[in-house]
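SAMPLE LOG
Freezer: B-3
Tube label: C17
Construct: single chain, 77 aa
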Amino acid sequence: MGAITRMNELIAVVTHQRAAVSAEGSQHLSSVEQVAERNLQDAPDCNGQDLSHLAGRLSMLSQLFSVSSQVPLIGNR
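STRUCTURE (predicted):
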């Protein structure tokens, strides 16, 4: 009985951690979308140098996006 309880606890932890990772990823993607929309609005008024700056800014923001998962695998316990 204790093993089943422990497995249920692990499943609950993994589910919570995955939900947190998904929420974080969603926030990052929303930020990238906002930057892309601003860039699209600014593009008609930009010259090549401005576009290069915007591309660099978008690249920098996209590098901030990472998914780190330290979720324990149930089979490895």
